[in-house]
Amino acid sequence: MTVQDLSRRAFLTRTAALGCSAAASPWLTPVALASAPWDGRLIVIILRGGMDGIDALRPVGDPDFAGLRALEEPEIGDEAGFFALHPALAPLAPMWAAGHLSGVHAVSTPYRDRRSHFDGQDLLEAGTGFTPGAPRARDGWLNRLLQTVPGVAAETAFAVGQETLFLLSGAAPHASWAPEASVSLSPQAELLLGHLYAGDPLFAPAAAQALALSQEMEHTPSLAEMAEGETGMAMMAEMMEGRGGAAGGHLRLAEFVSGRMREETRIAAFSLNGWDTHNNQGRGLPRALTRLAEVLRALELGLGPVWGRTAVVAMTEFGRTVALNGTGGTDHGTGGAMFMAGGAVRGGRVHTRWPGLDAASLYDGRDLLPTADVRAYAAKVMEELFGLNRPVLQEAVFPGLEIGDLGPVLA
User: Fold this and answer.
1) Residue 144: its pLDDT value, please?
2) Are 367 and 104 in contact (CB under 8 A)?
3) CA 220 from chain center: how many Å?
4) How far apart are CA 109 and CA 376, in angstroms?
5) Which of 138-152, 312-326, 348-362 has the lowest mean pLDDT?
6) Average pLDDT for residues 60-65, to the nearest whole number?
């Protein structure tokens, strides 16, 4: 370990006392990569915190929806007019119209009733069934997929701040990477940091670097801002090529993944935080959905010629309650939604066996009833994208899963 590595890690640890939350920082989220001998590309995005599928992918055609949520008019709808995307996903309208974005509704993992983020995310990444008290699986479902393929090689990369996603942990070779740390500090925190490490020969350089990065973040444009004006698309393309165009942490993830996937990488996984909307969901959820929309647009731009051979699966550990709570948020639930994007996707539609929102149809009297397993749709994508057979998927990748008759999900 070099002095630079040591000082950076120590700095990240010490800045926790200044209010910098490592768990909430997107630049600390690792990207896990693995090469595979396929032409198709698969990107898995874990939406950590439990995305409210009822709000993100709105069942406006359900007669009970209007009485449960007082929401503004959605922007994008499916052909039947039953579902519509949240207005924060309006930038994805061209992707939806091109058939490169679809939704899946009323899905969940086998996890039931306990509603713990830790257990729910663990089960989502393990891809196994749910047995209370059972030991954790030894590997994640993407790693088990790679274990079925001979000759898989790992990318060379490195991790900052967190371990590799469990989704890709296991016996098959893989690598991890995360972008350089960039934090935004308050003036008080900057002053305290400067005084704290002014005379420290080991940590002073790392502190100075953090202050510089914090100041850069104050002038970082969003993807939407960069897209405005005549030079917007050129700036976005330049960002994706790694030649400039500073971006937020979520866009740096998309930039890195796009660059690798244009070459030999075939599978990537990363996570986006900010989906635990217990309070004031009308403010928090649009921010999370905006980041998701920006990531999907950035991937579409960055992948360029290989976008047509790419499937992106965005999934979450569980849904949220159908009714709002007393603070304008939603609590942990069961059934929810997932999104699929990419040029390989059969988009412009919502895949579901909709259970209904009337009181008699709810799970446990409060949640959307799951009518399909989220793992089944992930398996279906891999079946069509990679040509894997069902016994491999149902026995090795997702042990005990029954994919069932879902119909085609890719174009």
Assistant:
1) 92
2) no
3) 22
4) 9
5) 138-152
6) 94
State pLDDT tens for residues 174-189: 777 766 544 455 555 5
DSSP state of 81: S
What token pair was written down for 267? 């599978």
pLDDT of residue 165: 82
Report the run of H or E that residue 33 belongs to, with start and end: strand 31-35
Give me the residues paired with residue 320 across strands: 332
Give the chain's largest Cα–Cα span.
67
- Could you identify the residue written with the tokens 């509704």? 105
Separation of alpha carbons 54 and 40, rounded Å: 31
Q: Are 205 and 187 in contact (CB under 8 A)?
A: no
Of residues 28, 26, 33, the one with CA closest to residue 262: 33
* DSSP 8-state class, residue 397: I
What are all long-range contacts of 197-204, with beta carbons under 8 Å and residues at least 24 apart?
202/3, 202/6, 202/7, 202/10, 203/7, 203/10, 203/11, 203/14
Cα-based distances in Å from 154 to 268, 312, 393 = 11, 20, 22
Q: Tell me: the pLDDT tens digits for 134-157?
A: 888 899 999 999 888 877 765 522
Q: What percent of the chain has pLDDT over 70?
A: 69
Interacting residues of 250 by C-beta distance below 8 A, sequence separation 6+: 26, 272, 291, 294, 295
Give 171-204 as a DSSP string.
SS--EEE-PPP-----HHHHHHHHHHHTT-TTTH
pTM: 0.78
Closest CA to 355 of 367, 368, 338, 373: 368
User: How far is it, in rounded angstroms, from Cα 242 to Cα 248?
Assistant: 13
Token duo for residue 317: 């550990």
pLDDT tens per residue across span 185-228 = 555 555 555 655 566 665 566 556 555 544 444 433 444 444 44
